[in-house]
């Protein structure tokens, strides 16, 4: 994945996708560079508009549905406070009936 990320970073920075640039980014990140992987990646990306591919894939991730896990945390806190108050009132009424 580091190799793909280096290409994306170079694209975002407006730099040319060359073996030396990809290797420099990887080295700066502390990754041991495999020259064969760099050559293979650049060969696979020959003629590919990286910016266009990134833009198209970003639309898919934005359109992903978001599921709701339940009520908002503030609603849960209000319910907890109501539950705590109820037993105190009942306990006070019970003590009053003893006297």
Describe the structure.
The protein has five helices and no strands. With 99 residues, it is an all-alpha fold. It has a domain at 2-62: Arc Repressor Mutant, subunit A (Orthogonal Bundle). The chain is elongated and about 65 Å long. It starts with a helix and ends with a helix.
CATH architecture of the domain at 2-62: Orthogonal Bundle
Strand content: under 5%
| Model regions low in confidence, pLDDT < 50 over at least 5 residues | none
Largest sheet: none
CATH class of the domain at 2-62: Mainly Alpha
Tell me how many strands there are.
0
Report the radius of gyration as a whole number of Å: 30 Å
Shape: elongated
Structural class: mainly alpha
What is the distance, rounded to the nearest whole angstrom, between the alpha carbons of the first and last residues?
A: 76 Å
Query: Helices and strands, in N-to-C order?
Result: HHHHH
Classify the fold: give the CATH topology of the domain at 2-62: Arc Repressor Mutant, subunit A
Q: Round the mean pLDDT to the nearest integer and report it.
A: 78
Query: How many helices?
Result: 5
Helix content: 55-70%
């Amino acid at each position: 994945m580091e190799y793909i990320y280096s290409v994306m970073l170079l694209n975002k920075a407006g730099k040319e996708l060359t073996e030396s640039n990809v290797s420099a980014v990887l080295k700066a990140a502390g990754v041991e560079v495999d020259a064969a992987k760099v050559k293979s990646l650049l060969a696979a990306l020959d003629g590919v508009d990286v910016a266009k591919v990134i833009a198209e894939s970003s639309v898919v991730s934005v359109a992903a549905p978001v599921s709701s896990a339940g009520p908002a945390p503030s609603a849960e806190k209000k319910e907890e406070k109501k539950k705590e108050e109820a037993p105190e009132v009942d306990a006070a009424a019970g003590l009053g009936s003893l006297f």
